[in-house]
């Protein structure tokens, strides 16, 4: 294991622990600020995610957004491949997908212009540490080649970290929304 891989593994372990504690302390927290941010983009195709483990829950904000335009959730098509996003509706039929995340029963793929990104840790420069599979980095890179794509990290305040071990292929977040604030990286 390289030095970078060791530092990422340690940062993930610490991020998971902070996220777990924050999740327990907030009972899943609130997506009220995420709803406020998304209200400025009514009708713009977006993707969220169905939370797993101790991820902060974006589903209420996604349900509000779905009343105004298309909302998708990620579908993993295989290792090393970018994610695809299948149209999601509140209360729609779902099936089990890889890694324990639910996906729509029937795939109806869309390309979002806004991607709500789950994460393990983030920094104030828009750096994001995920699970290590590179799915969101490959996906954001693919989407951003086609058109401007807004990446919104959704996390607990406690997931903030300093000096994240990042690589050139890591795609930056444009905004970070927590249970208590909206952060613009670099400001």
From TrEMBL:
This is 5-formyltetrahydrofolate cyclo-ligase. Its EC number is 6.3.3.2. It comes from the Bacteria. The keyword Magnesium applies. NCBIfam families: MTHFS_bact. The keyword Magnesium applies. It catalyses: (6S)-5-formyl-5,6,7,8-tetrahydrofolate + ATP = (6R)-5,10-methenyltetrahydrofolate + ADP + phosphate. Keywords: ATP-binding, Ligase, Magnesium, Metal-binding, Nucleotide-binding. ATP binds at residues 8-12, 128-136. Substrate binds at residues 50, 55. It is an enzyme of class 6 (ligase). Its cofactor is Mg(2+). Pfam families: 5-FTHF_cyc-lig. InterPro entries: FTHF_cligase, FTHF_cligase-like_sf, NagB/RpiA_transferase-like. One of its GO terms (biological process) is tetrahydrofolate interconversion. Belongs to the 5-formyltetrahydrofolate cyclo-ligase family. GO terms for molecular function: 5-formyltetrahydrofolate cyclo-ligase activity; ATP binding; metal ion binding. Transmembrane segments: none annotated.
């Amino acid at each position: 294991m390289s030095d970078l891989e060791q530092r990422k593994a340690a940062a993930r372990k610490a991020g998971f622990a902070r996220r777990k504690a924050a999740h327990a302390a907030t009972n899943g927290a609130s997506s009220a600020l995420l709803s406020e941010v998304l209200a400025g983009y009514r009708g713009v195709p977006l993707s969220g995610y169905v939370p797993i483990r101790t991820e902060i829950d974006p589903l209420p904000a996604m349900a509000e957004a779905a009343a105004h335009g298309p909302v998708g959730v990620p579908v993993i098509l295989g290792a090393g491949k970018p994610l695809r996003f299948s149209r999601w509706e509140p209360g729609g039929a779902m099936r089990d997908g890889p890694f324990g995340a639910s996906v729509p029963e029937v795939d109806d793929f869309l390309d979002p212009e806004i991607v709500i990104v789950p994460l393990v840790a983030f920094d104030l420069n828009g750096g994001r540490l995920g699970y290590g599979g590179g799915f969101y980095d490959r996906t954001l890179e693919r989407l951003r080649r086609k058109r401007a794509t807004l990446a919104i990290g959704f996390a607990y305040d406690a997931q903030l970290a300093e000096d994240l071990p990042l690589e050139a292929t890591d795609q930056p977040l444009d905004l970070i929304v927590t249970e208590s604030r909206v952060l613009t990286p670099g400001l």
